Amino acid sequence: MSVLSDLEARSGTTCELCTGTQNLEIFEVEPVSISGVDSSILACETCRTQIEDPEQMDPNHWRCLNDSMWSQYDSVKVVAWRMLSRLKSEGWPKDLLDMMYLEPEVLEWAKATGEGIAEADKIIHRDVNGVVLQNGDSVVLIKDLKIKGSSQVAKQGTAVRRISLDRENAEYIEGKVGPTLTVIITKYVKKI
């Protein structure tokens, strides 16, 4: 079975956040360490648009999280936690967040994108030109880099796709160079 058909079976062919039935697609919950059903949700276009673009946010649409935050699936709970964290200045989401319980590893996954952290406390990753990097971005190496722990050298101009950010250090990102997952220093990359 495909991931889409598995998600449709799991959700009853409805959005796992708001139960909408129009324009349903797979939404991968960042950062994706393993792809597939466990790191994805089935989401409608309205939810996907508002998750990806905070400028499009309609707080009343997210009152649906009162139900979906209790999902048995971790990926749904992670997105619910992130959206409630993003909206907590509205008042009602803070009450829901106070009721919500996530296992420690699920909470770590939920916090991996920086939701729930005050803007002043967020670590901002920037490439060599000062462009802000986000989880899932693609970068290109601007210098030959030796891959630590191997004899491999990543050549200048090598593209590294779907990077993940180090939550504790603004100078480090992770990405796959060939088959090897490695840590790369942000001053040696340029966002594509």
From TrEMBL:
This protein's name: Phosphonoacetate hydrolase
Organism: Maribacter sedimenticola
InterPro entries in alphabetical order: PhnaA_N_proteobac (IPR013991), YjdM_C (IPR013988)
GO molecular-function terms, A-Z: hydrolase activity
Keyword terms, alphabetized: Hydrolase
Pfam families linked: YjdM
PhnA protein N-terminal proteobacterial domain segment(s): 6-52
